[in-house]
Amino acid sequence: MAREVGFASDERLPPPGTIITRPYKGRTLHVRVLATGFEHDGTVYTSLSAVAKAITGSHCNGFRFFRLDAKDGAE
User: Which ranges are annotated Basic and acidic residues under compositional bias (predicted)?
Assistant: First the structure.
């Protein structure tokens, strides 16, 4: 049974349906932005930080991990 996850929209996020990609340790990660969360490897997470923690095993800022916090498109 699917569970709806509510979260506030953030201007740093691309619109729902967008795939965020990032190279990490020799592979390319793919995260789909949903209207109700973020999907990675078939699991829906409530935040990008939760996705980043599932990938790395430690807490980190999801926007920074996925490089969505850069000002003016620069890192």
Answer: 1-13
